[in-house]
Structure formats: structure tokens, C-alpha cells
Design brief:
Keywords: Kinase, Transferase. This protein has 9 helices and no strands. By secondary structure, it is mostly helical. It has one domain (3-199): Serine Threonine Protein Phosphatase 5, Tetratricopeptide repeat. Helix 7 crosses helix 9 (185-199). The longest helix has 19 residues, at 102-120.
């Protein structure tokens, strides 16, 4: 997909993702500090504005740098810093990319995922956003790569899986087994973004 078309599509999806604020706040309040909804909504709104401000000659890396910086400053938090840092790291490995083709999207997801894992000190099974991001990366390495609809299904399965995991990282870890049965908010945010892409 051409960069300008992808940028407009992502910005529209961010507008829709911001609508998940109340749901994400409720999930995070049940197993966290309750600020995730504000973080995601503010970050998504900042990303949409930043992408729409890019010039027509913006490259893939420009889009990722702008999105990463915007998400991180939207509502400063650990989640915002991790996601923002993941996107900025992805910008570095896609510096030569001219379009959002399957190989570039795969590089974005895998690099952002590894960066979030390293900086957050988390792993799959810890009941974090990684429980969706890692399966998405695997789906994108398939031949042929997964379609958007298949990625949504993969993310949905990952979110469902988090309901059986005891939180192991961040403030969610404080609630221990009381977090069982509640989907992870960060994982849910990724699912809502993919669903927004699908409907934009």
C-alpha cells in the first residue's frame, strides 16, 4: 500500500480506536490503575493529528516516527512509552521501505514487539500486550501472510487467552488471581485498533 493511502487509513482507524476509551478504562480498573483508556484515546487522537500533518512525500519511517512520538506524548504512561518506543524502533529498521508492503508490515510488528518485550521485561504468558503482538508477528510470517481479517481473529484469540492468565507485570500483578476472567487492556487495545482498520 502506498504511504499516503496507508497514512490516511491509519489516521481514520486511530479516530475509531479512541472510541474504546471507556471499555479500556473499565478493563484496566479491574486489573490495573485505570488509566489505559485515557492513554489509548489521547495517544490515538495525537497520532491521527500527527499523521494528517505529514507532507505528501512522507516515507514509511516518517509515519512510524511521527506515530511513535505522538502516542508517547498523548498521555505519558508506561504503556504509552512502550508503544511509542516500539514504533520509533520500527522506523529505524524500515528506513529504506517505500511502501507498506507485507514484508514492511512484518518488520514493523516484529521490531515493535521485541522492543516492547525488552523494555517492559515481559514475555508471552505474562498477560500483557505481547500476548497479542507475538501471535500477530507469527501470523505475518506465514506464507502467504495473514489477511487483515485473519489478523483480527488472531488478536481476538490472544485477548481471550489473557483471561486465563494471572497478571505478572506492572500494577496488574498486584491483583494476582483476581485478574482472572478479565481480558488484558493493552491486548484489547491492539484488537480494537485492528478492528478499526478493518472498518475504516
Amino acid at each position: 500500500m502506498r504511504v499516503d493511502a496507508a497514512t490516511a487509513w491509519i489516521a481514520a482507524a486511530c479516530d475509531r480506536t479512541a472510541d474504546a476509551k471507556d471499555e479500556l478504562t473499565e478493563l484496566d480498573a479491574a486489573a490495573g490503575d485505570g488509566d489505559l483508556g485515557v492513554t489509548v484515546a489521547a495517544g490515538a487522537t495525537e497520532v491521527a493529528a500527527a499523521l494528517r500533518a505529514l507532507g505528501p512525500d512522507a516515507a514509511v519511517a516518517d509515519v512510524l516516527r511521527a506515530a511513535g512520538a505522538a502516542f508517547a506524548r498523548g498521555n505519558p504512561s508506561s504503556f504509552a512509552a512502550l508503544v511509542g518506543g516500539g514504533l520509533v524502533a520500527a522506523a529505524r529498521v524500515t528506513a529504506e521501505a517505500a511502501t507498506f508492503d507485507p514484508a514492511t508490515v512484518r518488520a514493523i510488528v516484529t521490531t515493535a514487539t521485541s522492543t516492547i518485550a525488552e523494555r517492559g521485561g515481559s514475555a508471552p504468558g505474562d498477560r500483557t500486550v505481547l500476548d497479542v503482538l507475538v501471535p500477530l508477528g507469527e501470523a505475518l510470517t506465514a506464507s502467504p501472510p495473514a489477511s487483515l481479517a485473519e489478523l483480527v481473529s488472531t488478536a481476538s484469540a490472544g485477548v481471550d487467552a489473557t483471561t486465563t492468565m494471572v497478571p505478572a507485570r506492572g500494577r496488574a500483578a498486584w491483583v494476582g488471581e483476581r485478574g482472572l476472567g478479565v481480558p488484558d487492556g493493552g491486548a484489547t487495545a491492539v484488537l480494537r485498533f485492528l478492528q478499526a482498520l478493518e472498518s475504516s
